[in-house]
Amino acid sequence: MPAAKIYYDNDADLALLKDKTIAFVGFGNQGAAQAQNLRDSGIPNDKIIIANKEDHYAEDAKSKQFHVEHDFGKATKDADVVFLLIPDQVQPRVFNDLVAPTLKSTAAVVVASGYNVFYKLLNVPASNDVVMVAPRMIGSSVRSLYEKQQGFPCFVSVEQDGTGNALPIALALSRAIGATKAGAIASSAREETAMDLFAEQALWPNIIKLFQEAFHVLKEAGCSDEALCYEMWMSKEPAEIFERAAEEGFIWQLKHHSTVSQYGQLKGASKLDGTAIRAHFNDILHNQVLNGKFCKEFTAIEDALEKEGDENPLNALYKEAEESEMGAAEKRVRENLKLTQH
Ligand code: NDP
Fold first, then answer.
1. Which InterPro entries match (predicted)?
2. Measuring from atom 13 of ligand 1, which residue has the nearest CA?
């Protein structure tokens, strides 16, 4: 696989956005950050419109002097660019029912995650552009790194080139929100979705399970709940390890550990046979993520996620995790130590 292309400010022409009307559907995490960055990059305020129902998000946008429209169709019908920055699970309904019917035939639809595009859940006419500009950061960092003129990591791709001009527009938008300053990595909705859902459905579930099993084995060997909670995560040692991994390298951060620790970790990892885990990972990636099985399962339970109590499958999963040996032990430890718990 060749190295990915990386686009910088010089690859992007902000003049392409001159006179364009830009609508942001959603003013949450990403919407608030990206709209402010775009305006600070020189897009006139009267060319930006925020679509949001009348609530605290709309109030926030108004307090920042944005023009807010509560009727989504009205907000987007004249837009040349529509940023779809609402939660992934509500995007198809909002876009297909409220935005698509009056969308300009040449407008560019911008998503910040590949999910709905990869699984073809958005009904975008063939004449429109669909581009992905997907920051790898939470919204507050998208804003603060822009303010520090540092930029932030971001994936960019063209998913549908209706106008024949989608890439220059995607790059101009990436520059306007501050992404090309640090370098926007050429990617695709498929790649972004594969990596995102793989991490969520393969990597992190295994990490949760590893922690639960480690907790069980050490508890059985006589370690106290208090000692285990602190040793395993409450001391923030794992958080520090990952921070150093990002800053200095996944392997090279080991140099900060004691020699006993370095030898134990590297020797232990080299002795492990990854065959079973690799087979399991391949199974999740190909037979759950890329083939759309998870997407179908999630779509089927989506409405139930709005319900209260045990009827909500997410609440039921939380209950199961909280009642597990490790979950119950941590609850007790946190209560005893008067630590916060959500
Ligand atoms: P948020 O949860 O912050 O979105 C909140 C916004 O969505 C509000 O404006 C809210 O308005 C609106 N919204 C919520 N429900 C509805 C609805 N049913 N109808 C209309 N509007 C609704 O989302 P994020 O900013 O976190 O995510 C936006 C996109 O960015 C997603 O595609 C996500 O994957 C992607 N992304 C997110 C990152 C992050 O840091 N969270 C990082 C990178 C990408 P109201 O409640 O008033 O309706």
1. 6-PGluconate_DH-like_C_sf, KARI, KARI_C, KARI_N, NAD(P)-bd_dom_sf
2. 86
